[in-house]
Amino acid sequence: MKNLGCRVPAQLYSRVKRREWGPVIQHFAAITVLFSACLVAGTGAIASEPDSEILGANGMYFDKEDRLYVASANSASVFVIDPDSGEVLKNYGSEQGIHSPDDVVVDSDGTIYVTNYFEGNVVSVSTDGVARDLGNVGQGVNPITLDDDGTVWVGRGFPGDGLYAIDPVLAAPPRLVADSLNWINAMDIGPDGMLYGPVSTKEVVKVDLRTGKVETVADGFKTNLHAVKFDNLWQMHVVEGRPGRVLRVDLANKSMEVIATYPPGLDNLAFDSNNRLFISSYLDGSVHQVVPGGSLRQLLAPSDRAPWAHRLTLLRVLVVPVLLPILMIICFVIVWRLRRRRAR
């Protein structure tokens, strides 16, 4: 084994000189698979066990006691935070089936619902710590919200698409309500009972949860949108990820007001019972309160490790569903064509 690192390049070189392209392509295919497996395993280590540090803050939600829940896919954890002191009160992770949490919501009974982005499933955890798998809609499951009837609504982003209804008591399997939404992100139920969320076309859409009809209600934004939430006064707020802005949008007259800015990486937002606004950053792992007037109060400081964790997770997102299949198809086509030539 000690000379394997020398033998493999030597064998490849000799076969290239002899123009034995079939074995060469097969070697590269094997190397590609091995590299991808190592990459997935390495990034999986980031999002497999709970981390005491938030390596990217994603979805957020306040429970009825005004405790702030912060999902962190990179940290493989959902953190429960004191919104005044920033103290971590509790941590949910792999023991509860939470491995790559991208968003979180809490019902009136204190049960939390979490989407596992990479695994594709939705998990609930009751107040006594009992975890349940509510079903799998596919890799890329991301935003989550609840309606007044207790139905769990989840959206699927890259590499999938769609909006699903999930019965929290598992009386029925996940139901597809709308497809081809263009990757809906963090979403909320509006005052009219409709679901509002941002999509990849830099628009905010409204979805009729009974019929699945989709309608654009706001556009003209500068960059990709990451979240839509309503405050306690039913005012809609939208997060732009880059350059990092929080906008208050008046749907009646289509006006927009910038109420806070932050460096690129803004991910989500949440309002407590006093209508205090908090924002998260997937890129540096920080959480801030937006103080009236637009200034920010730091609740959780940025993490030096967060940007690297984000890059590795991004590679994991791209390699398995995109790059690996493309490379394998290319290798297969080349080998097939070479064998056809030999057969002639």
Compute the average pLDDT: 84
Number of strands: 24
CATH superfamily of the largest domain: YVTN repeat-like/Quinoprotein amine dehydrogenase
CATH class descriptor name of the largest domain? Mainly Beta
Looking at how many chains there are and whether they match, the oligomeric state comes to single chain
Q: What is the C-alpha radius of gyration, as a whole number of Å?
A: 23 Å
Which keywords apply here?
globular; Methylamine Dehydrogenase, Chain H; 344 residues; single chain
Walk me through what this model shows:
This protein is α+β, with helices and mostly antiparallel strands and about 350 residues long. It folds into two domains: about 5-45 and about 310-344; about 45-305, 7 Propeller (Methylamine Dehydrogenase, Chain H), CATH 2.130.10. Helices cover about 25% and strands about 35% of the residues. It has three helices and 24 strands. The protein has helices at about 5-15, 20-45, 305-344, and strands spanning about 60, 70, 75-80, 90, 100-105, 110-115, 120-125, 130-135, 140-145, 150-155, 160-165, 175-180, 190, 195-200, 205, 215-220, 225-230, 235-240, 245-250, 255-260, 265-270, 275-280, 285-290, 295-300. It has a four-stranded antiparallel sheet, with no helix packed on it. A four-stranded antiparallel sheet has the order 5-6-7-8, with no helix packed on it. Strands 9-10-11-12 form a four-stranded antiparallel sheet, with no helix packed on it. A hairpin with a 5-residue loop joins strand 5 and strand 6 (about 110-115). Helix 2 runs antiparallel to helix 3. The longest helix is centred in the last third of the chain and has 38 residues, at about 305-344. The protein is globular, with a radius of gyration of 23 Å. It starts with a helix and ends with a helix.
